[in-house]
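This protein record is not my work; I was only asked to verify it. Where you disagree with what is written, explain briefly why. This is what I was given:
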Amino acid sequence: MNEITPAPTYQSYILRLWRDSPVANWRAMLEDVHSQQQLSFASIELLVTFLLERTLAEPDEHPLEQRVQSTSASE
C-alpha cells in the first residue's frame, strides 16, 4: 500500500460522495491531490475519523490508514 505523506500544515483532497440507492449508506472516496492516491471509505463515519486522525494526530501516527482501502490512480 502506498502511504500518503502528511504535510505539516497543508493537505489537499478531492472528495467524492455517493450511495448506490436512495436508502443505501453514503460512501466516500478521497483522492490526494499531490500523489493521486485514492482512499475509499464504507461510511461517512470512517471518513470523518480518518480526517480527524490526519489533523489531530502526530505526523507519524495514522492508524486508520491501515483500515481503509487504498488505490493508486495509475492502477
